[in-house]
Amino acid sequence: MPLVLDPAAQDLLFREARTANAFTDEPVTDEQVQAIYDLVKYGPTAFNQTPLRVVLVRSAEARERLAPHLSEGNRAKTAAAPLVAILAADNEFHEELPALFPAFPQAKDAFFSERPVRERSAALNAALQAAYFIVGVRAAGLAAGPMTGFDPEGVRKEFLDDDHTPLMIVNIGKPGENASYPRSPRLAYDEVVTTV
């Protein structure tokens, strides 16, 4: 067998997982979020940088602040989700590199002294971490509804600062009735992979 991961785990994380658009009202606990982070923090990134920052939107007041920045079609499902996470890239991630990448602590200044370079690297590596986060949500037996239909500048001003760039908003919880669309097609192996 080419994969060593148990088939049930493969189903949970990938084959049976869907983007959720509806959730039950069962809460998502801080302990679940901590367990998700404690698992996915080991996902690889360049120079072990850790630019992902997560803002958990729990209160009704915070959801009201978020709603105007969402696309119209995302507002109702976000209001009803047990937990909403704003996933953002920290463009000043390089300040942590001496501790996070002790094999080459000079990486902070050697590669990331210029803001445009940091922003590109933060966006790419935080997106990797966001993908790990979604898989971690699935590993916790929850469903994720990632969305990019929002006003990034509005979300940044409302919840972040000039050093953070919002990447996506993820609704999290136990999937409700008719939470997902049927599985859409995927490209075949030979349409994606080329050997040279």
Strand arrangement in the largest pleated sheet: 1-2-4-3
Helix content range of the residues, please?
40-55%
For the sheet with most strands, the description reads:
4 strands, antiparallel
The general outline is globular
Any overview of this molecule?
The chain has 196 residues and is α+β, with helices and mostly antiparallel strands. It has 9 helices and 4 strands; from the N terminus they run ααβααβαααβαβα. The protein has helices at residues 7-15, 30-40, 60-66, 72-80, 97-100, 107-112, 115-139, 152-159, 189-192, and strands spanning 52-57, 83-90, 143-147, 164-173. It has a 4-stranded antiparallel β-sheet. The relative contact order is 0.22.
Structure described in brief:
Helix content is 42%, strand content 15%. It is of the alpha+beta class and 196 residues long. α1 (7-15) crosses α7 and α2 crosses α7.
Keywords:
196 residues, alpha+beta, 4-stranded antiparallel beta sheet, 9 helices, 42% helix, 15% strand
Compile the SSE list and pairings.
Blueprint: H1 7-15, H2 30-40, E1 52-57, H3 60-66, H4 72-80, E2 83-90, H5 97-100, H6 107-112, H7 115-139, E3 143-147, H8 152-159, E4 164-173, H9 189-192
Antiparallel strand pairs: 1-2, 2-4, 3-4
Helix pairs in contact: 1-7, 2-7
